[in-house]
Design brief:
The protein is α+β, with helices and mostly antiparallel strands. The chain contains six helices and 18 strands. The strands form five sheets. It has an eight-stranded antiparallel beta sheet with strand order 1-2-3-4-10-9-8-7. It has a three-stranded antiparallel beta sheet with strand order 11-16-17, covered by helices on one side. The protein has a three-stranded antiparallel beta sheet with strand order 14-13-18, sandwiched between helices. Strand 3 and strand 4 form a beta hairpin. The chain is globular, with a radius of gyration of 19 Å.
């Protein structure tokens, strides 16, 4: 059985389908595949696989956080004027303009948690909206939307103790990868599956470069890497990491 980050999120909150009322945040829909998002927005600018999740930062300022299968669990946006469906009404949240006072006036009926810099709202069984404000001005600096388990991993749901109680550590590569020598104008993202001993079990081109020969060569180099395995509450588990290469 492969656990990884997807299973970690399923522990405090069981998996389910995306909410029917989901609206794109930064052009990204929760529940979609990151590979499909890349077809619309272009390849991600940066890719990271950390304890907090698999992050795919796109050029428009939106970061998608995905499980080990590349399915978007949450979206984090720090610019623009995003719109989100709240209680059947599409509301705008202009970054840098929307205030804590306005949030408290407009969204009190769906409020879940509140701290001086944060407001969170339960919009459905598996959908939370989190607004983060600049303390000095009380103006919106960040909006995140998605599954509560993922938002808790990002430190954005201070009241979700159940999700925080499960400690996940992502796989960490031992030494320098031969694939790091790749340099070019084409971006590709590879999914590397790591077993509980730290050995690479499979590599696939999650977002291909468009050059099958280059993708195959990069996959062979990535397959030779070694990792410290992922752990869940200190126990080694199988998991996946995503690696971005320019070739």
């Amino acid at each position: 059985m492969r656990w990884g980050f997807a299973a970690l999120l399923a522990l405090p909150l069981a998996s389910g389908n995306a909410a029917a009322a989901d609206l794109p945040l930064g052009g990204i829909v929760v529940g979609s595949s990151v590979s499909a998002v890349a077809q619309t927005l272009g390849p991600p600018a940066t890719v990271t696989s950390l304890d907090s999740g698999n992050g795919f930062a796109f050029a428009d300022g939106a970061t998608a956080y995905a499980d080990d299968d590349g399915v978007v669990l949450a979206v984090d946006l720090r610019s623009g004027r995003p719109r989100v469906d709240v209680d059947g009404t599409a509301r705008a949240f202009p970054i840098g303009e929307y205030s804590t006072a306005r949030a408290d006036a407009e969204l009190a009926e769906v409020a879940e948690f509140a701290t001086p810099p944060l407001r969170s709202y339960r919009l459905g069984p598996r959908r939370d909206l989190v607004l983060a404000f600049t303390p000095a001005s009380n103006r919106l600096e960040r909006i995140a939307y998605g599954e509560p388990g993922q938002l808790a991993r990002l430190g954005l749901l201070p009241g979700d103790g159940a999700a925080k109680a499960v400690v996940y550590r992502a796989p960490r590569r031992r030494g320098r990868s031969a694939a790091s020598a790749c340099a070019g104008t084409h971006t590709a993202v590879y999914r590397v599956t790591v077993d509980r001993a730290g050995a690479v079990r499979s590599v696939d081109a999650f977002i291909p470069s468009g050059d099958p020969a280059a993708d195959a060569a990069a996959a062979r180099m990535l397959a030779a890497d070694r990792y410290a395995p992922a752990t869940l509450d200190g126990q080694p588990i199988a998991a996946a990491v995503f690696v971005e290469l320019h070739q």
